[in-house]
Amino acid sequence: MPELPEVEITRQGIAPIAEGRRVTEVRIRNSRLRWPISPELAQELPGQIIHSIERRAKYLLLRAETGTVIMHLGMSGSLRFVAPARPANRHEHADILLDDDYCLRLHDPRRFGALLWTRDDPHTHPLLASLGQEPLDVAFNGAALYERACGRRQAVKAFITDSHNVAGVGNIYANEALFVAKIHPQRAAGRISRARYCVLANAIQQVLRDAIRQGGTTLRDFTGSDGRPGHFRQSLRVYGRCTAACVICQRPLRGVRIAQRSTVYCAHCQR
DNA sequence: ATAATCACCTGCTCGC
DNA sequence: TGCGAGCAGGTGATTA
User: Fold this and answer.
1) B2 C1' closest Cα residue
2) How far apart are CA A26 and CA A7, in angstroms?
3) How many CA atoms lie within 13 A of A107 on its CB side?
4) What residues contact A60, with CB distance under 8 A and at least 6 apart?
5) Which residue in A57, A99, A156, A241 has its CB near the most CB atoms, within 10 A?
6) Tens digits of residue pLDDT in A202-251
């Protein structure tokens, strides 16, 4: 479900309520996510204040006093505040209860998500340490992408969806950004000029910012932590529009699979 | 080192 | 209506 904009929308919805509040209890109903939920979470987190909630790539980092909760929503995860007494359904695997009767509930049908605890600097955690540039960071630019892509024959779309190159660009927004940048998704990453990488970097930023502004993309079930869907779906130019007309040249869009992911592009506008 | 494929899950849609 | 096939927003691990 969530790509970077959806994770950021989730962060923005949760942070104002959770930050500064104290954890009263952690309830784990099913710890079988991508990795087992850290058992220390239920032991160590209660009693601690959540100082802040950050996002790195598609990870949410809940900073507490003696450590940090590292959370990932995988493909189908979502996070909502519910009434603490509300019965959990079979996909609601964990709750973090806070002061004032707030209950932050993790829902994840496919269980590709993660809920981990670390006492160390989370940015040195194995899952985060080798992540690429944060695309919405002011320092993000095409020059670094160009350097990194040097010599690579991999399709540029696979290159930009690899979080070690750019952090957090998933399938939807990779399709969209490549369309905006007029770059063919199957072009070899190492055969794109520095100037075009600068255009691509700007396109990635523009698409992600736009999506965040519109509350993310709701395909079937994404909602922010307030339960409201995102509206970026109506702004999608290529994703999910295979065979429909290109919004620029009106020719039919084409679909291919790149790195096991559906890819849609305009063969006329993207080169 | 790089690139491609597999694996982990459930739920939904489609065609027969 | 039922049923199998294929697909879905991610990404680490495994294989060449």
Assistant:
1) A152
2) 21
3) 20
4) A7, A10, A11, A53, A54, A69, A70, A71, A72, A73, A79
5) A156
6) 999 999 999 999 988 888 777 777 878 889 999 999 999 999 999 999 99
List of protein residues whose beta carbon is under 7 A from strand B: A 32, 34, 75-76, 90-91, 109-112, 151-155, 158-159, 189-190, 220, 259-260
Rounded CA gap, A227 and A224, in Å?
A: 5
Extract the tokens encoding A53.
């909630």
Residue owning tokens 């605890």: A117
Question: N- to C-terminal Cα distance for chain A?
Answer: 29
**Contact status, residue A21 vs residue A64, Cβ threshold 8 Å:** no
Write out the two tokens for A239. Answer: 């994703």
Question: How many Å is the Cα radius of gyration of chain A?
Answer: 20
Helix, strand, coil: what percent of chain A each, to 5? 30, 25, 45
Backbone angles phi, psi at A179, to 5 degrees: -65, -45
Q: Is the pLDDT of residue A1 over 70?
A: no
Q: Which residues pair with A23 in a beta bridge?
A: A98
Of A93, A82, A86, A116, the residue nearest A14 (C-alpha): A82
Strands, E assignment, A83-158: 92-98, 102-107, 114-118
The average confidence (pLDDT) of chain A is: 96
Q: Which bases of chain C are contacted by protein, using any atom under 7 A from a CB? A: 7-12
